[in-house]
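User: Predict the structure for this protein chain, please.
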Amino acid sequence: MLAGAALSCLTGMRDPFLPQPDVCQTAQLTQWRYQGFVAVKGNIRGILRDGNGKWHRTGTGEPLPPGWRVGNITDQEMQIFTAAGCEPSQWRWTRQGDQHEAMDRDNHGVQRSDSKGGSAEAGHADGGRRAGGAGAAKSGGAGKT
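Assistant: Here is the predicted structure, written as structure tokens:
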């Protein structure tokens, strides 16, 4: 009998008292967000953020970490297919994150001048300056006369 218990452990039999693993992971579907897309020479890549805040850039036919596969991608939605036998078998996310689309529409350059004649630094989403740069508070300067 002891040999039978040891054999079942070695062969990888599942513990009947533990819940079955969720191979479909469809509970995560509502936690993911379709944030937008990038189109280069007709190739569209969707940009997603998962429930943990991790970003994913993916294209049609490519797999996503939970075992899903990307279907159709448009400017407004992304379709995915879950694993065989999972319900729902497909899911669509509507694009999120277009609050600032009108503001960004005409700003295609990496660098631009701000209203004070200075230059906004490239790479900063808000056009702001790095800490310690021009316009930043100097250490030890506050309260001195």
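The longest helix spans residues 2-10.
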